[in-house]
Recover the amino acids of this structure.
């Protein structure tokens, strides 16, 4: 009988420990998923920044007197490269999007450039990267949503913060970015 009184508390303690360990492991898994999806955004932004450099060089030969626009695109590209965190990167990315919109507006004045094979190839690659970037942002935000919900639900919320599991920021587009820029190459 005495043995039963010792076994039951030990068994209950073991069950509780296993339960909390599984919650902790779930938080670790989600935190790492957030980091992994964030790196996918970073990969796409790096590809885009590299492509934008090539795009600027292609335009530079045709539109050398449009120096201010080319400098804005280059500065915005550098800002994306230096950004840290979802909020800062969202803002820098929006700046690059605006600069690219101005660049494509300039391109409208150069029919030979619009027909240039190199430019058309870069344009197609940029479109593909933008689509991949949109998918990566969506996946990141979904992963952040699952992670934040887990951190906020009971019983994980009782100890998540004490183990360093803080809510993550979403990758948000500024309100002015709700509509994609209109680019017409015809």
């Amino acid at each position: 009988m005495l043995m039963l009184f010792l076994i039951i508390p030990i068994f209950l303690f073991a069950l509780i420990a296993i339960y909390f360990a599984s919650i902790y492991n779930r938080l670790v898994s989600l935190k790492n998923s957030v980091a992994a999806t964030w790196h996918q955004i970073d990969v796409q932004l790096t590809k885009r920044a590299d492509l934008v450099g090539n795009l600027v060089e292609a335009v530079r030969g045709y539109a050398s007197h449009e120096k201010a626009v080319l400098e804005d695109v280059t500065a915005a590209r550098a800002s994306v490269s230096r950004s840290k965190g979802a909020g800062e990167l969202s803002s820098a990315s929006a700046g690059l999007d605006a600069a690219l919109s101005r660049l494509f507006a300039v391109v409208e004045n150069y029919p030979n450039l619009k027909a240039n094979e190199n430019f058309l190839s870069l344009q197609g690659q940029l479109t593909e990267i933008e689509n991949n970037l949109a998918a990566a942002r969506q996946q990141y935000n979904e992963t952040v949503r699952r992670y934040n919900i887990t951190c906020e639900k009971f019983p994980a919320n009782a100890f998540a913060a004490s183990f360093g599991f803080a809510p993550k920021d979403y990758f948000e587009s500024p309100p002015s970015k709700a509509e994609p820029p209109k680019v017409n190459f015809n």
About this structure: The chain has a mean pLDDT of 79. Residues 32-177 form a domain with the de novo design (two linked rop proteins) fold (CATH 1.20.1440.20). Helices lie at 2-62, 67-82, 85-107, 111-115, 117-152, 156-159.
